[in-house]
Specification:
With about 1000 residues, the protein is α+β, with helices and mostly antiparallel strands. Helix content is about 20%, strand content about 35%. It has 16 helices and 60 strands. The radius of gyration is 32 Å and the shape is globular. The termini are far apart. The relative contact order is 0.06.
Length: about 1000
């Protein structure tokens, strides 16, 4: 069968589409059976089956192991089911509310005889769904594939990637659980008939598309190339980077009972969650003929609603997921704070500054965005069974999410704490969160179970013992404590940074500096860093607290059976120990010397024991991940024969890179790791080959500079530190990103600004006291403005883009002719840094501010016109801002927590806005001057009426400080940029309408 699939795939890739129709006929019943089992709607299952094959056809060229085609289909179908479930919330009857008597009655009662044939069929299906719901997840899948899919033991084994004996055992167990209801299940499932022309429908859709070949290179596109060509090439690049699907395929594990398994619980409610669009299905995802060609069975009463939900899902775009009201697109996904792999290795969860992004590891595609936290999500953790995701945020809440549906289950909040560390109990029924205080919660009810106090600083690491009875915590106060969960008693306290439980739960390993082994502190005269001893590993008996032995090393790992303990020293040397006796067994010396001078200092704070030294699930392979500044080296060792397998240098960056997550696959010889840049790597643990890398895109920092093209159709932004000195641009609907432009010498660490006409970028160059002017049509630097003697703090254009003003830390202000690059005026009067500048709309006046005063200047003469306010420097680092209203009548200023409105002609103070919001970074007037927008430090935008000086409305679109507020030239679009790493584009008319309504 595998060889047949390989030959058919080769024919398809050679252009023979009829070969793919053979694959469809071969597997369509199997895929449909699997999807129906997960979705529960027969006809929607047909649609998802079609989508599965279309996706497989499009991605076929990326399949590196054609013999695994069946397993690959399983992964794709499962991902489609999860996406569908996350899209639409359906009301269903919970299993626990349906008794066995009701099930039997529903199956055999006489009322069905009064229904017509279609209704009887529908009722039978509902009965079978309820009967199957009594089974474990794995058993449901087996019996559905066997009866509905018509598959043999061997075919199911290949499809799910498990042994034939496991299939037989699970099927036997399912039959035993159903007992006398098994005949109706067999008969009903056996009588289901999918649409006869499903294969024909699929092939009709396939005629419109072609498989996507993998691409490894990134095209270089000149700035001046037409937008349509650029977008097409970028789309090809995006698809080309998704070539790693087969490397991550993780079939559902149905192995023997001794293996860890995940029982998926079907939630009765499904959250309305939008998934990433499938560009293939957008072409004709709602094919009229396809939807109408259904089988003889009548759809149930929710079929139309579900079909509409599915159609919406296919045209969705992740840039529009979970948007605030009136916003039309979000650019950027927020900074990466933490990454976690799901227990089965199929998904990645990314804790970002705006929420939790879920990714498919198989494709690298976005699955969902979980929002609810009102501030940064700092930490996340999956429950061991994979059903629940916990997240801790700076909003002082711990939240629990259903990983299948994306539904927020519980908000665990205590205003006294700010949870940082998270740990689940081994049985997934309890979750603990740590700040200075540890809170223990019941996962199902959300009720608090225990409150543990004793640490004096924040708790950086938590972990339950294997039996779930003891909780360990590590704090910044350099103490590690063991707690009895039931009694809330503190059992013992140890000095250290982090810890590990042995698999049997009898031994506790503490890692930390042993004061007795430390050399004297370093002095300026006699540096002794090389003589200092690194952390030691102390093994303790959990029951008695007895000290068993002390081992050398700074990180450790227990083998799965607990019989071997591996430790690694600072130079990369690995030693294997007998944890029971403390006897050294073997030593692994790295094949190449490690440059210890490049090694960062030992981290002196608590942290969870990271998988930088870890055994494979079967204990045969030991992986060592060495963290060295800009390079991470991965080494693989065969434990049984001390054989070194391979070494790979990866996660390479221009600066310090931190590893965020690593994990072994349970079902395949694969190890995965992810770093703070969003790079995800995988290795084959049998051969040691490093075979794939992909990057979680759009998680970079975003610049604090925004601009529009003259026609208002394009938004521009200066790149972040990580992106380098680049200008990025999009159409204002966010559907197209154009080729980035690299600007030599531009310093992204400093200030920059776009001209109002969208033709010029002014920015401070690398020497911090020179300004460059770049032509945005050609990408060339056309002028250099020289004259400042110290760091330039602010620059701004006049409304007609003809003048540029700049201010530095000496208090000097220069006015430049943009066309010629000549300095026109020098304005001196401020005694300290000029923090903000603003031209009046008619270019006759320039406003400037520092920490001490606000001044107005006559531009024709360069003379000071007036000083609006003068006071002593308070010493506060309060951000200052200025803005003229478009009609030139009002000047708004910010300083020292105050927002002041001035009459621009008479210089009279009109109002001090009575606000209590967070620190202000930016101001912007609406195009008609009737509203002043204030961007606050907590991500809130306040809208004030400039006639009545009253607060009309507030919105909180961001989780971080608002950096920029800018209107498009036509006044229809508002752009907001935030420290949370995102840019939002808004329909201004909709915001105004809401203000009027409120």
């Amino acid at each position: 069968m595998k060889n047949d699939d390989v030959k058919l795939i080769q024919r398809v890739l050679s252009g023979d589409d009829t070969a793919f129709s053979t694959l469809v006929r071969k597997y369509q019943k199997s895929v449909h059976a699997l999807v129906w089992r997960k979705i529960g709607d027969f006809h929607i299952a047909e649609d998802l089956t079609q989508d599965t094959f279309l996706k497989a056809y499009q991605k076929l060229a990326t399949l590196k192991e054609p013999q695994s085609f069946a397993s690959w289909l399983y992964v794709i179908a499962t991902n489609h089911c999860k996406t569908w479930l996350r899209k639409k919330r359906l009301s269903t009857q919970a299993l626990q509310d349906t008794s066995r008597v009701e099930l039997e009655s529903a199956a055999y009662s006489g009322y069905v005889t009064e229904e017509n044939e279609q209704t009887i069929t529908q009722v039978q299906r509902e009965v079978v769904k309820k009967l199957l719901a009594k089974l474990q997840e794995s058993d449901r899948t087996i019996i559905t594939l066997y009866y509905l899919g018509g598959m043999t033991y061997e075919e199911i084994s290949q499809f799910l990637g498990v042994s034939v004996s496991a299939v037989k055992n699970r099927l036997y167990r399912a039959r035993q659980s159903l007992k006398k209801e098994e005949p109706i299940v067999r008969e009903t499932l056996g009588n289901f008939q999918i649409t006869p022309n499903l294969t024909e429908n699929i092939m009709q859709e396939i005629a419109r598309i072609k498989p996507v070949a993998p691409s490894s290179g990134k095209p270089s596109v000149p700035w001046a190339i037409a937008a349509s060509t650029i977008v097409a090439m970028l789309l090809m690049l995006g698809i080309g980077n998704q070539q790693y699907a087969i490397r991550f395929q993780q079939p559902y594990s149905l192995d023997a009972a001794s293996e860890m398994t995940v029982e998926l619980i079907e939630a009765p409610l499904v959250l309305h969650r939008v998934s990433k669009p499938d560009t293939r299905t957008q072409i004709e995802s709602i094919n009229t003929s396809r939807r109408s060609n259904t089988s003889k069975q009548a759809p149930n009463k929710t079929a139309v609603l579900v079909a509409e939900a599915h159609a919406d899902e296919m045209i969705a775009d992740y840039t529009k997921w979970e948007l605030p009201k009136e916003a039309k697109v979000r650019l950027g996904k927020g900074d990466i704070n933490r990454i976690r792999f799901s227990p089965d290795g199929n998904e990645l969860a990314v804790a970002s500054s705006i929420g939790i992004w879920m990714y498919s590891v198989a494709t690298g595609d976005e699955i969902a965005l979980l929002t609810g936290h009102t501030a940064d999500v700092r930490n996340i953790a999956f429950s061991p069974d994979g059903r629940i995701l916990a997240s801790a945020g700076n909003d002082r809440t711990l939240r629990l999410w259903d990983t299948d549906t994306g539904q927020q289950l519980t908000v665990l909040s205590d205003e006294r704490i700010s949870p940082w560390s998270i740990a689940f109990s081994p049985d997934s029924t309890t979750v603990a969160s740590g700040s200075r205080t540890i809170q223990v919660w019941d996962v199902d009810t959300g009720n608090p179970l225990a409150t543990l106090t004793g640490h004096t600083e924040s708790i950086g690491a938590l972990a339950f013992s294997p039996d779930g009875k003891i909780l360990a915590s590590a704090s910044w106060d350099m103490s590690i404590k063991l707690w009895d969960i039931a009694t809330e008693e503190q059992l013992s306290t140890h000095s250290g940074q982090t810890f590990v439980f042995s698999p049997d739960g009898k031994t506790f390993a503490v890692i930390g500096a042993d004061p007795a082994t430390q050399s004297p502190e370093i002095t300026n005269d006699t540096p002794q860093e090389s003589d200092r001893q690194g952390p030691s590993i102390r093994l303790l008996n959990i029951a008695t607290g007895e000290h068993l032995s002390t081992l050398s090393g700074e990180t450790l790992a227990f083998s799965p059976d607990g019989k071997i303990l591996a430790s690694r020293d600072a130079d990369g040397t690995i030693q294997l120990w007998n944890p029971a006796t403390g006897e050294q067994l073997r030593t692994f010396v790295p094949p190449e010397p490690t440059d210890t001078k490049q090694r960062p200092p030992i981290v002196r704070h608590p942290a969870p024991q990271h998988n930088s030294l870890v055994f494979s699930p079967n204990g045969s392979t030991l992986l060592s991940l060495n963290d060295y500044h800009t390079i991470h080296t991965v080494q693989l060792w065969n434990v049984a024969d001390d054989r070194f397998l391979s070494t790979t240098k990866t996660h390479i960056g221009p600066g310090r890179i931190y590893m965020f997550a690593s994990a072994f696959s349970r079902d395949k010889p694969i190890f995965m790791s992810a770093d703070e840049t969003g790079a995800v790597h995988t290795w084959n643990t049998t051969t040691g080959d490093h075979f794939s890398t992909f990057t979680l895109k759009r998680h970079e920092d975003w610049g604090s500079t925004l601009g529009f093209s003259a026609d208002g159709t394009t938004l521009m932004s200066v790149g972040s530190l990580r992106q380098g000195n680049t200008v990025r641009s999009w159409d204002i609907d966010g559907n197209k990103e154009f080729a980035p432009m690299t600007l030599p010498q531009l310093s992204v660490r400093s200030v920059s600004t776009f001209s109002p006409d969208g033709k010029t970028l002014a920015g401070v160059t690398d020497d911090t006291n020179t300004i460059g002017l770049w032509d945005l049509q050609t990408g060339t630097q056309r002028a250099t403005l020289v004259g400042h003697t110290w760091f330039i703090e602010t620059i701004t254009f006049s409304s007609d883009s003809s003048l540029l003003a700049s201010g530095d830390r000496t208090g000097a202000i220069y006015v430049w002719d943009v066309e010629t690059g000549h300095r026109k005026k020098t304005l001196k009067g401020h005694q300290i840094s000029v923090k903000a500048l603003a031209f009046s709309p008619d270019r006759t006046t320039l406003a400037s501010t520092s920490h001490r005063d606000i001044r107005l200047w006559e531009l024709d003469t360069g003379d000071p016109r007036t000083t609006l306010i003068e006071h002593e420097d308070s010493g506060q680092a309060d951000t200052l801002a200025l803005a003229f209203s478009p009609d030139g009548k009002v000047l708004a200023s910010v300083g020292h927590g105050k927002v002041l409105l001035w009459n621009a002609d008479t210089h009279r103070l009109l109002s001090e806005l009575s606000r209590r919001g967070a620190r202000v970074k930016t101001l912007a007037f609406a195009p008609d001057s009737s509203i002043l927008l204030i961007g606050c430090g907590d991500g809130t935008i306040e809208m004030w009426d400039t006639n009545t000086y009253t607060l009309k409305s507030t919105i909180k679109p961001h989780t971080g400080r608002i950096e920029v507020l800018r209107f498009s030239p036509d006044g229809k679009t508002l752009a907001s940029s935030s420290m949370d790493g995102t840019i939002l584009l808004w329909h201004w008319a909709s915001i105004v309408q809401r203000k009027k309504t409120n």
